[in-house]
Amino acid sequence: MEKLEYEYIIVLSLAFPSVNVNFREKDIGNNISEAVGDFDFRFDGRKSIELLEITKQSIVIKLSISFTPKNVTREISAFSQILVQDYNFDKYSAKVGRLFKIVIGSYPEGIEPPGHNRSMYYSGVKEEIMGYMPEVVSKVINNIHQDTSVFIKMSNEILAADNIDKLDNYIQQLENLVSIATNKKDIMVRSKQ
Questions:
Q1: Residue 28, CA distances (Å) to 54, 108, 163 in order
Q2: Cα–Cα dist 145/161, whole Å
Q3: pLDDT in tens, 97-139
Q4: Level-2 CATH architecture, domain 6-192
């Protein structure tokens, strides 16, 4: 059996919700837990998922894997398939074949996020994982480059973009920020209850 030495913290939220679903509802939460077990059984020794937290709108997992994947999101696509095929989660998505929006909150040491400046990447996702795992948060914060003009730089880059692919990338980043803010708000509301 290979050692599962690469660990990624991943936040999943519905990409195109068709209904207002609360992942914390008992039956839905149980389905998610069972799907994690199904995934682990299917990939025993090669990769596993640990369920870190379920919020109203997101699922936070730790993916442990024995190799460096080319595309981390593909490595958990089977988890989405299990939820759709075995637990009918497709009813929560307005877009066929597209269940989750995925934010990778933490990469293994020495692995760079593809296509991202690491310090900008971490400053963009630190709120996403805040409240989930203190040791991950402190690791992320230690890697953040303090840059007070990120908003100004990003605005200038958007305005100067000369192709559609760049603009699509910025749109995805902004969608991720909206998801981060929504999840943070959910955590704050929940902590006050």
A1: 10, 30, 41
A2: 24
A3: 889 988 887 777 776 666 544 444 444 444 444 444 445 444 4
A4: 2-Layer Sandwich (3.30)
